[in-house]
Structures are given as structure tokens and as C-alpha cells.
Amino acid sequence: MTMTSLPRQAMVLFGHGARDARWREPFDRLHAKLAAALPDCAVRLAFLELMAPSLPDALAELAAGGITDINVVPVFFGQGGHLRRDLPALLDDCRGKLPGVTIRCAAAVGEDDSVLDAIAAYCAGTLTGTRP
């Protein structure tokens, strides 16, 4: 009997959160796509406010499961105050509470040119009728 190895690396998709549960639907779809594409990586969602789990809770759960390398990906359009002030403070606090776990953080997804290219193509497509 062979045992499958548990993932040692994780990705946490970090969003703002909202009161309306429907706001979360694209995040759940993104989570499902990444979980399918990255079977050797534990993929989780976390939110700054109004939704669960919080980032500290998600990171603690992953660390408790033996994950030692975590990459946080802010699913934000730009680097506003939450990403400049709130997120670094949250990450510093979590790093202090989770010794032995490497916690890295990517730039906001909207800062990447390939993401902006995809959004621009979508917007242009709405004019030509190729997008709903």
C-alpha cells in the first residue's frame, strides 16, 4: 500500500470580504480552478473582514497540518491601504506566531500586466459582442 504524501506548500487566496455572500462566488470558482490545477499544493481562501476564514485562521490551520511554505496571493485589483498597511501587519503577527513556517506574499493580482491584459480583452469584447 502506498501512501500519498501530504502537501508541504500552500497558497492562500486573500480577499477583502463582503456582507453579501454572492460576492464570494468568483473567489470560490478561482479556488476550485487552482485546487484542480495544483494538486500538490494546499489551496485555501481567506478574507480580511466580514467573511471566514480570516487570514490568521487559515494560516494557523495550514501550519497545524504540517505546511511549512505558504504563499499569500492578494486577490485585489490594486495596492490600496489594506495591502500597504493591514496585510503586512497581519503577516508579521502570523509569522511571529508560526515559527518554522515561511510565509511569503505576492503583489495584488491586479498589479500584474497579464491580469490587466485579460481584463482589457474582456472589456474590449463587450463592445464587439464577443462577451456577455
Automatic annotation (TrEMBL):
Q: Where is the signal peptide?
A: none
Q: Name one Pfam family in it.
A: CbiX
Q: Which Gene3D superfamilies match?
A: 3.40.50.1400
What InterPro entries does this protein map onto? CbiX-like, Sirohydro_Cobaltochel/CbiX
For this UniProt entry, the molecular function terms from Gene Ontology, in alphabetical order, are: lyase activity; metal ion binding
The record's keywords, sorted A to Z, are:
Lyase, Metal-binding
Q: Does the keyword Amino-acid biosynthesis apply?
A: no
What's the superkingdom here? Bacteria
Q: What is this protein called?
A: Sirohydrochlorin cobaltochelatase cobalamin biosynthesis CbiX protein
